[in-house]
Amino acid sequence: MTDRRKGSIREAAIEIRGIEKTYRIGDERVRALRGVDLRINRGEFVAIMGASGSGKSTLMNILGCLDKPTRGEYRLAGKPTHKMGAGALAKVRNEEIGFIFQSFELLGRATALKNVMLPMVYSAHHMFTAKGRAKDALTKVGLGDRMGHKPNQLSGGQRQRVAVARALVNDPAILLADEPTGNLDTKTTVEIIELFKALHDQGQTIIIVTHEEDVAGHAERIVRLRDGKIISDNKTAEDPVHRDWVEMIASGMGASSVPAPATPKEEEPAEVTP
Amino acid sequence: MTRVILAPVRLFIQTVLLALGQVWVNKVRAFLTALGIIIGTGSVIGVIGGLTGMEKFVLNTFDSAIGVRRVVIWGQVPRELRSVMSWEDAKITEAEADLLIANSETIDVLTPVCNQSLPVGYRRESRSGVSVIGVRPAWHETEDRTTILGRPIRQSDIDEKLPICLINEEAIEELRLPRDPVGENLTVDGRRFLIVGVLETKDVPEGFGGGEARTELIIPFSTSKSMNPYTSTRLDAMITSPDVAEEAKAEITAILRAARNLRGEDEDTFGMWVAQNEIGNFNAVAGVIGFIAVAVVSISLLVGGIGIMNIMLVSVSERTREIGLRKAVGAKGAVVLLQFLVEAIVLCLVGGGIGLAIGFGLVEVFRNAFDLEFASVPTWAIILSLASAASVGVIAGMFPAIKAARLDPINALRHE
After folding, report:
1. How far, in Å, CA of A44 to CA of A139, rounded?
2. Which residues of B touch A93 (CB under 8 A)?
3. Distance in angstroms (rounded) separating the CA atoms of residues B131 and B141
4. How far apart are CA B71 and CA B249, in angstroms?
5. Which of B225, B232, B226 is nearest to B89 (CA)?
6. Which chain B residues contact residue A94 at CB under 8 A?
7. Which of A16, A241, B59, B172 could crosslink B177 through cysteines, CB 3.0-4.6 Å?
């Protein structure tokens, strides 16, 4: 059987049309996304960037089927998720999406192996092969010798690798990483980025939500959001903002001068309309 | 296909294991939380075990002293007829005894009994007011007493109105008889009676009229009547089974009423005492005690349930991020609900199990310290207590579980 994830480059992994998202906070309506169109093909490695309040977190939640758009269409691997109920969305999350979080979100009392097996607890697929698949996934991320370790016996980088293995184990259509290196030091950041690149080379579709230019620089394509809209969508090499940043680094200003938001964790609604 | 069927089973097993793991990780907390359930279950098992012991003790004693199949019938003048009817008119006759033996299907054995209090002497010893009881041979069956020396009363003794008697062991002491008194003569109210047998002593507890064993003489019924035809007679009967008590009562009443030409509204001119009714009374008392115990235990379970609900709410709040993660990787709301519900039920069942062990310990204490040798825990009590513990788990766990199931994964993952 051929790997369905490695389909033609023209096949869309994600297709979004006219997505809008409006929150209601008290009497105020907050428009977090105001008309977003996006297509990500299979096998692409895309970075979604944006400042606090740009709506990138809201977009990520919608891409991850954790949230539903107020208006618009979202097809994931051809499935119209905007028409689905909570149960069907849970199934889509289980089968088509591999989540990677900033703070890893591992179960503290479970071993690496058990953590990786978690998504398979909630599906009938792979029920007789769950352990083997989890072992394969851990080997793939280079933790074949750490399967019996609990998270507190692992380094930050190793923990994030366990999380990557967990994201991969159900063979998802997309890998969705939310600030995956936000809690890691420079050395382990490089490790995790290299892991993503290796997975990308194997044909895995990867979407990284980040505010770090150097992390985004490893993606093929950068999508930038501001005020709930996409303001640019370029190949990394052609992205003017990224090019400026690369030049700035090259001219010896140093990475230390790159403005890095102290608390990148959350972006709140883009705009408040009374 | 197999995996579609097996998947929910596997999920359930994993959920139960997860819940057991949670209880194990929070041992002290789980124990304190389940204390209400432990105490509730322990006390209900203890009370039921103790009651069962008491009930069996009372029934056994009752059966050996009186017999659960016993029915006693006597002549009795109804209150309204006291002015027009003498007690002599209501007296039970031997003919009526024979009528019942011949016609009743529920009566197993029956003997007429008449009791006199007479002076009895042997050589120089004499006692006044000795109980001299006239009976038929069936008496050995109704009383379940046989002779340890000599022979029992026989039908020929009745037919011949022989002046013979059986004595009990106390009589040997009181009248200073030889150790084997068979063949000796006693004087009863001035008449000579030949001792033909010695009865075994029946161990009757104090509560049932025993405790102070005294000299007793058993003589043939006909001999007793020939000495004094005016003594009152009662009928001692054993019915075939305690289960036919009501039937027997109706049957005996019908036979006697027909024999006495009573009709319509006429009051019965006889009285009847049915042992089974007394047992019913005891059972009613035991039932009330049991009901009160269950009510008290329910309060304990209610308090325990509140504790469980509280700790489950704490657990949901502590594990908000975990719930968020589980939902993100595809756990449906119902599965999360099941997880927390099962955890509450497991907590309650573990408490119930410990309570059960304590209850069994209590019953063991009753058995040894209070001499309730029959104290035991019936299976239904075990099932009842575990079922109620599980129900407490369902009821107390439902609200926290619904809360967990409804958590929004985005907010849950942001939870600090």
Report:
1. 23
2. 327-330
3. 20
4. 8
5. B232
6. 329-330
7. B172
Considering only the beta carbons, identify the residue of A66, A86, A99 that sits closest to B333.
A86
Helical (H) or strand (E) element with B405:
helix B379-405
Neighboring chain B residues of A90 at a CB cutoff of 8 Å: 327, 330-333
CB–CB of B329 and A87 under 8 A?
A: no
Q: B327 and chain A: CB distance < 8 Å anywhere?
A: yes
Based on the number of CB atoms within 10 Å of its own CB, is B389 exposed (0-12), middle (13-18) or buried (19 or more)? Answer: buried
Give the one of A99, A109, A121 whose C-beta lies nearest to B11's C-beta: A121
CB contact (8 A) between residue B330 and residue A105: no
Find the CB nearest B330 among A67, A93, A127.
Answer: A93
Of B6, B330, B410, the CB nearest to A90: B330
**Beta strands A97-100 and A174-178, pairing class:** parallel
CB pairs under 8 A between A and B: 65
Query: In this predicted structure, what is the pLDDT of residue B143?
Result: 86
Of B3, B327, B331, the CB nearest to A127: B3
Of A41 and B265, the structure prediction assigns the larger pLDDT to: A41
Q: Is pLDDT at A4 greater than 70 in this prediction?
A: no
Collect all residues of chain B within an 8 Å Cβ-Cβ radius of residue A122. 11, 326, 329-332, 335
Q: What are the residues whose beta carbons fall under 8 Å from the beta carbon of B69, sequence distance 6 or more?
A: B108, B238, B239, B240, B241, B242, B275, B276
CB B400 within 8 A of CB B307: no
Question: Hey, what amino acid is at A172?
Answer: P
Residue of B160, B168, B159 whose CA lies nearest to B195: B168
Per-residue pLDDT reduced to its tens digit, A204-242: 999 999 988 989 999 999 999 999 999 999 998 888 888
**Cα separation of B139 and B230, whole Å?**
21
Strand residues in chain A grouped as ranges (E): 12-25, 28-41, 45-50, 71-76, 79-80, 97-100, 174-178, 206-209, 221-226, 229-235, 272-273
Over residues A133-151, the mean pLDDT reads 93
Q: Chain A closest CA to B413's CA: distance in Å? A: 8
Which residues of chain A are within 8 Å of residue B10 when distances are taken between CB atoms?
127
Per-residue pLDDT tens over the stretch B310-363: 999 999 999 999 999 999 999 999 999 999 999 999 999 999 999 999 999 999
CB A6 within 8 A of CB A42: yes
pTM above 0.80, yes or no: no
Nearest by Cα to B119 from B193, B209, B197, B225? B193
